[in-house]
């Protein structure tokens, strides 16, 4: 596991944001556009997340909710934040309803950022593996934007897994990056094979294992459930991936026991 420390140059700041838009990306996933007030400055690293302070049930009880920031800092829209939220439960549905209410009423939303140590911090001269499951693509999108900005010829291998073929809502963006950058490779993966799907299928680690002989020098950013992240790392260690070269939010919010070494 990476032992990177938080960037001390970036203290956590609270902003009263406007919810500019809540738009469907697919049947179950929404893109949220936020904007900080005029005169404010946004400071975060690609791959960090933020916390929304939201009265989810409308009963005056505010909850802190973590979401990956889906865009890298955009000099053309320096106060803009993008989120990708999956409507995977009644709770997530209530969150999306509250955000829509705030958008309709032009009311402010309290947002704290930046959070998280698993931001882009590796030598872009080394090969990079970016792995996402479901809404984990939000963080991987921000990291990809930043890599392309800093080093357009960096070697990057992106894998994105979903359960449903209609959940690949960012396919065009990633396919365009792959078409424009010879060393950037993008592979969407459907978890179970399906007659309507002509792409790869299976567990993410299986597809990556098929594609690589050795992963010794690879720097990996992984985003998804703790089960997916730890399972993928364990399987890819068989191909030489080193956990010290891996970066993921799960190391902070769902740490596991140190593995026994033989
Ligand atoms: C650091 C962090 C970042 C999160 N970012 C997002 C996000 O960008 N979009 C989102 O819909 N939910 C994200 N979540 C989950 C979110 O905070 C709420 O738990 C969720 O919206 C509540 O819905 P649920 O009950 O269906 O969530 P749960 O059943 O708790 O499901 C959580 C979902 O969030 C996904 N997720 C977990 N960590 C991340 C991450 N770092 N980036 C992206 N997805 C993640 C999981 O793959 C899973 O699909 C994040 C959680 C954490 C701890």
UniProtKB/TrEMBL annotation:
<protein>
    <submittedName>
        <fullName>Putative flavodoxin oxidoreductase()</fullName>
    </submittedName>
</protein>
<keyword id="KW-0455">Luminescence</keyword>
<dbReference type="InterPro" id="IPR017938">
    <property type="entry name" value="Riboflavin_synthase-like_b-brl"/>
</dbReference>
<dbReference type="Pfam" id="PF00175">
    <property type="entry name" value="NAD_binding_1"/>
</dbReference>
<dbReference type="InterPro" id="IPR001433">
    <property type="entry name" value="OxRdtase_FAD/NAD-bd"/>
</dbReference>
<dbReference type="InterPro" id="IPR050415">
    <property type="entry name" value="MRET"/>
</dbReference>
<feature type="domain" description="FAD-binding FR-type">
    <location>
        <begin position="12"/>
        <end position="121"/>
    </location>
</feature>
<dbReference type="InterPro" id="IPR039261">
    <property type="entry name" value="FNR_nucleotide-bd"/>
</dbReference>
<comment type="similarity">
    <text>Belongs to the Fre/LuxG FAD/NAD(P) flavoprotein oxidoreductase family.</text>
</comment>
<dbReference type="GO" id="GO:0016491">
    <property type="term" value="F:oxidoreductase activity"/>
</dbReference>
<keyword id="KW-0560">Oxidoreductase</keyword>
<dbReference type="InterPro" id="IPR017927">
    <property type="entry name" value="FAD-bd_FR_type"/>
</dbReference>
<dbReference type="GO" id="GO:0008218">
    <property type="term" value="P:bioluminescence"/>
</dbReference>
């Amino acid at each position: 596991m990476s032992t990177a420390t938080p960037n001390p140059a970036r203290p956590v700041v609270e902003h009263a944001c406007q919810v500019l838009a809540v738009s469907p990306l697919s049947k179950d996933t929404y893109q949220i556009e936020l904007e900080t007030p005029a005169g404010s400055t946004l400071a975060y690293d690609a791959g960090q997340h933020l916390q929304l302070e939201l009265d989810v049930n409308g009963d005056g009880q505010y909850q802190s909710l973590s979401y990956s920031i889906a865009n890298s800092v955009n000099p053309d829209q320096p106060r803009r934040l993008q989120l990708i939220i999956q409507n995977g439960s009644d709770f997530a549905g209530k969150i999306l309803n509250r955000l829509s209410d705030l958008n309709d009423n032009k009311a402010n939303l309290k947002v704290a950022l930046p959070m998280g140590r698993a931001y882009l911090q590796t030598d872009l001269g080394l090969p990079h593996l970016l792995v996402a499951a479901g809404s984990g693509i939000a963080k991987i999108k921000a990291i990809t934007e930043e890599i392309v900005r800093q080093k357009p010829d960096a070697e990057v291998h992106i894998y994105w897994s979903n359960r449903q073929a209609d959940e690949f809502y960012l396919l065009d963006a990633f396919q365009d990056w792959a078409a424009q950058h010879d060393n950037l490779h993008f592979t969407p993966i459907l978890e179970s094979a399906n007659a309507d799907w002509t792409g790869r299928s299976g567990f993410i680690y299986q597809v990556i294992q098929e594609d690589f002989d050795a992963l010794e020098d690879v720097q990996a950013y992984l985003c998804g459930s703790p089960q997916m992240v730890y399972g993928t790392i364990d399987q890819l260690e068989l191909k030489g991936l080193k956990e010290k070269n891996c970066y993921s939010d799960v190391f902070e919010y769902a740490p596991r026991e140190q593995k026994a070494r033989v």
